[in-house]
Amino acid sequence: MNPVRLDTVSWDVSRGRTLGPAPFFVVGILNVTPDSFYDGGHAADVDAAVAKGLALLEEGADILDIGGESTRPFSEPVPADMELARVLPVVRGILAVRPDAVLSVDTTKASVARACLEAGALILNDVSAMDVDPELLQVVRDFHPGYVLMHSLGRPRTMQVEPRYEDVMAEIMRFFEAKLEILVRSGVSESRIALDPGIGFGKTVEHNLEILKNICKLFKFGRPVYMALSNKSLWGELLGRQGRERNAATLAATVALFEKGVRIHRVHEVREIRDGLTVAHMLGKGTSGEQGC
Q1: Longest Cα pair distance anywhere in the chain, in angstroms?
Q2: Tell me: domain 9-284, CATH 3.20.20.20, correct?
Q3: 98 carries an active-site annotation
Q4: Which helix (H) or strand (E) holds 134?
Q5: What is the DSSP string of 180-227?
Q6: How far apart are CA 8 and CA 202, in angstroms?
Q7: pLDDT tens digits for 215-259?
Q8: How many other CB atoms are there within 10 angstroms of residue 136's CB atom?
Q9: Backbone angles phi, psi at 228, to 5 degrees
Q10: Nearest alpha carbon to residue 42 among 192, 51, 94
Q11: pLDDT computed for residue 35 by the predictor
């Protein structure tokens, strides 16, 4: 693993596809849960979710990340059959209209991941790093999806109960080093892996800011960084903003992180984030040096 700053991003995913190279990827969030913190569950039924997903693609989403189980702090897990009933019809519905769409399934469960990958999803976004369901490793070996490896401290139900670190960045670095070694030894190609530091997953405001300020340290692994900070409670605690009032903070942080070299951004507001990243990319063309790092 050589230290690199990724000026463009390519990502090997399922079915022999490679995404990119591109200056960035925008991942549109499609929650199909009744308790989404952002949209109040407005896409909780299949038809509404499919329509929302197609709209996000039209707005410029490179990838749709579809989730049927809330992972917000203090949320309760849902049974696999319930999660699958929420997600699988949406995967099928979107691909029936847009067979070229790049879909990601946000799940910790092997059965849900397998069914959605069989249906045509190309990426697995796993907030548990396979700690909830070890059978996920076999699913990744069978389907070779793009895989988002995320750091968290505990499960959603308990992760925000007094999270503590001696050195948050050092512990995250050791986590990724160990997990990447396990994946590679198991036959998973590094070219399929993106790294998510898990903003808000078992971190205080101070921890989150420390991670964002030092995000360049993750480039030593030679893998793209996948950033999911859209409208997180971090912005509420810093600015006193709620819901869509956090859009400006999300956009500002996303552009700042892009200028540091972060290339994959998971967001709620696709059009405005894509516009911001496009402007930042155009303004940065022709510059020299390691901006921000």
Answers
A1: 51
A2: yes
A3: no
A4: none
A5: HHHHHHTT--GGGEEEE--TTSS--HHHHHHHHHTGGGGGGG-S-BEE
A6: 30
A7: 999 999 999 999 999 998 889 899 999 888 899 999 999 999 999
A8: 24
A9: -125, 85
A10: 51
A11: 59
Q: Which two tokens stand for residue 46?
A: 């299949």
Spatial CB neighbours of 141, under 8 Å, sequence gap ≥ 6: 186, 187, 188
Please say if the pLDDT value at position 2 is more than 50: no
Is the Cβ–Cβ distance between 10 and 23 less than 8 Å?
A: no
Could you tell me which of 150, 223, 189, 191 has the C-alpha nearest to residue 12?
191
Give the tens place of pLDDT for each residue, 59-100. 999 999 999 998 766 567 889 999 999 999 999 999 999 999
* Among 222, 264, 273, 224, CA closest to 246: 273
From the number of C-beta atoms within 10 Å of its C-beta (0-12, 13-18, 19+), residue 278 rates as middle
Going by the DSSP 8-state scheme, the letter that residue 158 receives in this structure is T
**160-165, long-range: CB < 8 A, 24+ apart:** 160/73, 160/74, 160/200, 160/202, 163/202, 163/203, 163/204, 163/207, 165/207
d(C-alpha 74, C-alpha 35), whole Å: 12
Catalytic, out of 52, 223, 266, 274: 266
What is the band of 268 on the pLDDT scale with cuts at 50, 70, 90? very high
Catalytic residue among 232, 246, 260, 263: 232
Q: What is d(CA 71, CA 160) in angstroms, rounded to the nearest whole number?
A: 12
CA distance linking residue 149 with residue 178, whole number of Å: 12
Residue 41 scores a pLDDT above 80? no
Catalytic residue check, 266: yes
DSSP run (H or E) holding 241 = none
Tell me the two tokens of residue 60: 């410029």
8 Å CB contact between 68 and 121:
no
- For tokens 């198991």, the residue is 186
